[in-house]
Automatic annotation (TrEMBL):
Domain Integrase catalytic: start-end pairs: 75-235
Species, as recorded: Streptococcus moroccensis
PROSITE patterns with a match to the protein in the record: INTEGRASE (PS50994)
Function: Involved in the transposition of the insertion sequence.
UniProt xrefs under InterPro entries: HTH-like_dom, Integrase_cat-core, RNaseH-like_sf, RNaseH_sf, Transpos_IS3, Transposase_IS3/IS150/IS904
Protein's name in the database: Transposase InsO family protein
Gene3D superfamilies: Ribonuclease H-like superfamily/Ribonuclease H
């Protein structure tokens, strides 16, 4: 059994905790094991995953603010009906980059993203313009200055998007995308402790991880399917 646990940990780059590995033992090998035993083995072998909290920023004075229409209802039965977006900071090596992501709450898939060395309105508009959303789709963000800008408001209006915003200083209002950005860092940069990264290497790490997250990384809420697997099975 230990060899199977090691295989699953290595196969998934040591990103899963003992609960997920316990479920994978059953899914992959039809092996039912008490999760406490899996925890003990992973702890003894040094295979437990590690996490680190995400830093947040308080940006400038808002131009336009709307109410929280999402209201922490992160469930939807249809793709591209409810989406969430956020920016996170990539401070690694001697580099400073920003990642803007949009997640479809239907299957928690990252459907658009942009990596840039400049955090401005054009940066988030580039992410938004990757999508052709249905009229009335709900897009939720925080109250960062790029999302409360006139240009972003006009873009959402022209696309027929219903904009929703978190209450100020309330990270839980946008918990899903906050979680994704935290997991991305925990399972790449923090896990492997890379040093002396270049901008290109950071971009490669993020792009490769998003492919892995969308196509391979299982989630319990998706019946242990990846976001893409879940979407295809439901089609």
């Amino acid at each position: 059994m230990i060899d199977k646990i090691e295989y699953l940990c290595m196969e998934n780059q040591f990103i899963y905790g003992y609960r997920t590995i316990t479920r994978l033992l059953k899914k992959s090998f039809d092996l039912v094991v008490n999760r406490k035993k899996v925890y003990r083995i992973m702890k003894e072998k040094g295979w437990l995953c590690r996490t680190r909290p995400k830093k947040t920023a308080n940006l400038g004075k808002p131009y336009y603010v709307t109410e929280n229409k999402l209201d922490r209802d992160f469930h939807t039965d249809k793709p591209m009906q409810k989406l969430v977006t956020d920016i996170t900071y990539l401070y690694f090596g001697n580099c400073k980059l920003y990642l803007s992501s949009i997640m479809d709450l239907y299957n928690r898939e990252i459907v658009a993203y942009t990596i840039s060395d400049c955090e401005d309105t054009d940066f988030v508009l580039d992410t938004l313009n990757q999508l052709d959303l249905p009229q009335g789709a709900l897009l939720h963000s925080d109250q960062g200055s790029v999302y409360t800008s006139k240009a972003y408001f006009q873009a959402c209006t022209e696309k027929g998007i219903t904009h929703s915003m978190s209450r100020k200083g309330t990270l839980a209002d946008n918990a899903c995308i906050e979680w994704f950005h935290s997991v991305l860092k925990s399972e790449t940069f923090y896990l492997h402790k890379w040093r002396n990264l270049t901008k290109n290497s950071i971009k490669d790490i993020v792009q490769n991880y998003i492919i892995f997250y969308n196509e391979m990384r299982i989630q319990q809420r998706l019946n242990d399917q990846s976001p893409v697997q879940y979407r295809k099975l439901a089609a």
